[in-house]
Amino acid sequence: MNGARNKLSLVLIAGLLPLFLILVLIVPLWIYFTGESLFISTMLTFAEVKNDTLQITTVSPLRQLLLLAILYLPAGLFAFAIWQGMSVTRQVRQKQILSRPLANSVRKIAIAMLSLGIALPMSRFLIPLTIAWPGHYYQVTLLLGDFVLLLTGSLLLVTFHSLVEGIKAEEENKEFI
């Protein structure tokens, strides 16, 4: 019964991860093409800036494209982490638990999470800067989620090193036998 439950959860994860990947890549474009006012207000909401503090009615098309690129920085890192998660899921389904490709995928997820923990505050700083340049003062907003991303990425990096040590021990045992 436990094996069937594990297989079902792996199938569910394997089905949901591509859906998340598609959503992460499409949603920023959908927000961009919904209209300038909704795009700007969504970007300011993402940056944790109150809409009434910045009275912006229009933003140049070049700045809108720059805002889209700023939005795709964390979205791209998250999509990369999901892609590597799909690789981990595929390897676990093939029973390749102690393998170097699995360990490298875990390392790439850890690096993506650490990068995301840095990219999100940077994006929240760059968005109002891009919209209202020059004029207002700007601040870096650090949220609890940023620290959670950094801690989780660090934990995954430690897990990667543990996997590498386990792989080395398994290879030494195979050579010894």
UniProtKB/TrEMBL annotation:
Coiled-coil blocks: none
Superkingdom of origin: Bacteria
Transmembrane segments: 12-33, 65-88, 109-131, 137-158
Pfam families: DUF2975
Alphabetically ordered keywords of this record: Membrane, Transmembrane, Transmembrane helix
UniProt-recorded name of the protein: DUF2975 domain-containing protein
Record organism: Enterobacter chinensis
